[in-house]
């Protein structure tokens, strides 16, 4: 996937799952790190090692679980970070969502190619739900459709999560009264 596709689908997924803009922001920042870390580690030989060691989900998922366990499995709150009361839990949670952005990057790459599963040096798991564009940085129609499906499903999840039953009832009543 392109960087735009990774950033859009990861951010939408985390926002839909958590209803937390702060968690979505940190997953947005981590969503392209597996690709950019290849430049740091391999330099000009990046293409030779693409989707191998840096795309092994075990590393990123382990780091995310460590961070989430240190945070007490909370979703980060901006108010706690600002006032400083128990802010260290929210900092760990932000780091966890950054690593979850990396995990989601690998999952998204598995939809348009192969990634390592148990052996980090061998790409052996994945499917071709869509093909990439021949032009670098350009989203193909399949990728656009995939990202729009992710965004749409996440938007519906966000709407459902943001309503409690009482607010949903009040929402329906207000629509009924306006008719």
Describe the structure.
There is one protein chain. The protein is mostly helical. The protein has one domain. The chain has helices spanning 3-18, 21-30, 33-42, 57-71, 78-83, 87-110, 141-162, 165-178, and strands spanning 112-116, 123-128. The protein has a two-stranded antiparallel ribbon. α1 runs antiparallel to α2, α1 (3-18) runs parallel beside α7 and α2 (21-30) packs across α6. The relative contact order is 0.17.
Task: Name the features.
mainly alpha; globular; 6% strand; 2 strands
Quick structural overview:
The protein has helices at residues 3-18, 21-30, 33-42, 57-71, 78-83, 87-110, 141-162, 165-178; strands at residues 112-116, 123-128. With 179 residues, it is mainly alpha-helical. The longest helix has 24 residues, at 87-110.
The main sheet comes to: 2 strands, antiparallel
Strand content: 5-15%
Helix content: 55-70%
Order of helices and strands: HHHHHHEEHH
Coarse shape: globular
Number of domains: 1
Strand order of the largest sheet: 1-2
State Rg. Answer: 19 Å
**Tally of strands:** 2
Total helical segments: 8
- Oligomer, anyone? single chain
SSE-based structural type: mainly alpha
Which residue ranges are poorly predicted, with pLDDT under 50 across at least 5 consecutive positions? none
Give the averaged pLDDT, no decimals.
89
Distance between the termini: 45 Å
């Amino acid at each position: 996937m392109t960087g735009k596709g990774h950033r859009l689908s990861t951010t939408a997924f985390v926002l839909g799952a958590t209803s937390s803009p702060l968690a979505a922001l940190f997953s947005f920042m981590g969503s392209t790190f597996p690709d950019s870390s290849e430049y740091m580690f391999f330099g000009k030989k990046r293409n030779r090692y693409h989707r191998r060691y840096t795309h092994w989900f075990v590393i990123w998922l382990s780091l995310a679980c460590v961070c989430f366990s240190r945070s007490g499995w909370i979703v980060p709150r901006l108010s706690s970070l600002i006032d400083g009361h128990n802010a260290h839990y929210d900092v760990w949670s932000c780091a966890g969502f950054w690593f979850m952005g990396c995990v989601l990057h690998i999952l998204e790459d598995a939809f348009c190619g192969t990634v390592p599963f148990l052996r980090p040096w061998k790409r052996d798991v994945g499917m071709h739900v869509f093909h990439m564009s021949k032009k670098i940085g350009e989203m193909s129609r399949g990728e656009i459709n995939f990202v729009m499906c992710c965004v749409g499903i996440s938007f519906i999840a966000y709407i459902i999560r943001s309503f409690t039953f009482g607010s949903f009832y009040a929402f329906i009543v207000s629509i009924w009264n306006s008719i």
